[in-house]
Write a structure and sequence with these properties.
With 501 residues, this protein is α/β, with parallel strands linked by helices. It contains 16 helices and 13 strands. Strands 3-2-1-4-5-7-6 form a 7-stranded mixed beta sheet. A two-stranded antiparallel ribbon has the order 8-9. Strands 10-13 form a two-stranded parallel sheet. β1, α7 and β2 form a beta-alpha-beta unit.
């Protein structure tokens, strides 16, 4: 068993030191998609594929118009753009924009054919019902064939790029196994036999120190006990955690899971040794290995790409719109009291990491409270006259649009809290169980809790409890439409705010 485990473990990615783009021999272009941990950003990669899809559909429209009609004006360009958006939407519905889907070019080709045909049939039917003259058959056929060829080429190239990045260790799911012994050995062997090269198993966490711990797991690093698990997953950017602790050991299983519900990771329980046989639809499979899904990341890779686009585009537009207000506010602060115009404060952000949040200074410089150890209350003598107005209207938060453009915050999300913020005499994290689960997404300039009246002072346990509940609801129910709804409600919620001092 010892030799078998060492052999199978070496078949998977088990190195804890990732290769840089230069070390892996990949072109410099790959560096555009690599994050600070030298892993490829899946949202960036998927957005690039979707962008190429859209450009290809639009470009094929313009080429077809030139070939058939001899020219392509603005109507053709607008029509091509509309169809491009619809094709991307259809491919998204068919689960084309995921890394696992892009690995298989033949399956993707079938989805491309179905998406194109569906969109063209719908538009043709809509034109007929509206009494419009459909495009000429020659133009439609030329457009369809050109788009089909271009999208097929993109899928072939994407499949090869994904395969190359995977083999280079840049597009793998960083994985840890919780629980050693025979269960872990069997799981590692099954994953290796199934060719799960997209997994990079970094090691095993286990509390057991006695004879029940099989020596065969020494093929992988023993990374620590359950107490070390949360910090390791956060610091190492773990994507997937597989629990091999027997389900009969409920207490130990709950002990593990309670530590991890706050993290941005997928959690699976290996069902290999389970005697309970469920319908196949109840399982999530990694290769052919059955898993029970305990928790998924709140946002898929594609959702993260959409939210990043939303933040950058709307954030830039909003910053331009409020620039005059920000300029006047900066002048008022300068004339009102001595000190810097902006105030920077460390707050908890995504993955419970500290981020530096920008605000307009609203307190006297010598009395500023960088950790927010004392909440601001009505009539607080530390707040300047201008500060009272900009705090009540939330104008002091406008500089956080710079955080949005820098990528440390989103337009919409749970509001970031200072490190020593308290409800009464107790730190927020000591009041609300699972408080850190709100950090599974980026913090926001505005949020679901704020537009529902939970804004301003949080001097009681009930207030912070309510805020967290609204934050978790937002995370579990995120959509672009929900974000736009919250953004639209934010100005009205500011007018009715009662608790901001």
């Amino acid at each position: 068993m010892l030799a078998k485990a060492k052999m199978t473990a070496s078949t998977l990615h088990t190195s804890n030191i990732p290769a840089t783009p230069a070390q892996s021999g990949l072109p410099r272009l790959a560096a555009m998609f690599v994050d600070r941990r030298y892993s490829v950003s899946r949202p960036k990669l998927l957005f690039a594929v979707a962008l190429l899809d859209g450009v290809s559909v639009w470009l094929s429209s313009m080429i077809a118009a030139h070939l058939v009609d001899g020219a392509a004006g603005w109507p053709a360009a607008i029509r091509g753009g509309l169809v491009a958006v619809l094709v991307i939407s259809a491919l998204h519905v068919k689960w084309s924009y995921s890394v696992s889907a892009l690995r298989s070019a033949p399956a993707q080709f079938a989805k491309v054919v179905m998406a194109l045909i569906t969109v063209f049939l719908i538009l043709t039917g809509a034109a007929y019902l509206a009494g419009r003259v459909p495009s000429s058959p020659k133009f439609v056929i030329a457009w369809l064939m050109l788009a089909l060829v271009m999208l097929a080429v993109i899928r072939i190239v994407a499949s090869r790029v994904v395969d190359s990045l995977t083999r280079a260790g840049l597009l793998v799911r960083k994985t840890v196994i919780v629980g050693g012994g025979k269960e872990a050995d069997d799981l590692i062997a099954a994953l290796a036999a199934d060719g799960a090269a997209h997994l990079k198993i970094l090691g095993v966490f286990d509390d057991r120190q006695d004879e029940r711990v099989s020596e065969s797991t020494s093929a992988l690093a023993r990374l620590g006990t359950f107490e070390d698990l949360e910090a390791f997953c956060r610091d190492s950017g773990i994507d997937l955690l597989i629990v091999t602790v027997p389900t009969r050991a409920e207490d130990r299983l709950l002990q593990i899971l309670q530590k991890l519900f706050t993290l941005q990771i997928d959690i699976r329980v290996s069902a290999m040794t389970s005697k309970l046989r469920l319908n196949s639809s109840a399982y999530h499979y990694i290769g052919k290995v059955p898993m029970l899904a305990v928790m998924d990341k709140p946002l898929t890779d594609w959702d993260r790409a959409l939210k990043n686009i939303e933040d950058r585009v709307l954030g830039a537009l909003l910053l331009i719109a409020v620039a005059p207000i920000m300029a006047l506010t900066a002048l008022a602060i300068r004339l009102d009291s001595k000190g810097p115009i902006f105030f920077k404060q460390k707050r908890y952000g995504f993955n419970n990491e500290l981020v530096e949040v920008f605000k307009f200074r609203s307190m006297y410089a010598e009395q500023s409270d960088a950790t927010a150890s004392k909440l601001v209350t009505r009539g607080d003598s530390r707040v300047t006259p201008v500060g009272r107005f900009i705090r009540r209207t939330s104008i002091d938060e406008l500089p956080q649009l710079f955080n949005v453009l820098l990528g440390t915050m989103s337009l919409v999300g749970p509001r970031p809290h200072a490190t020593q913020a308290k409800a009464g005499e107790d730190l927020y994290q000591d009041v609300v169980q699972g408080y850190y689960a709100r950090h599974r997404v980026k913090p926001g300039v505005t949020g679901w809790a704020q537009v529902n009246g939970w804004r301003g002072e949080t001097d009681t346990h009930d207030k912070i409890q309510a805020r967290v509940e609204y934050d978790l609801y937002y995370i579990d129910n995120w959509s672009v439409l929900l974000d736009l709804y919250i953004i639209a409600l934010t100005p009205f919620s500011l007018l009715s705010a009662k608790n901001a001092y």
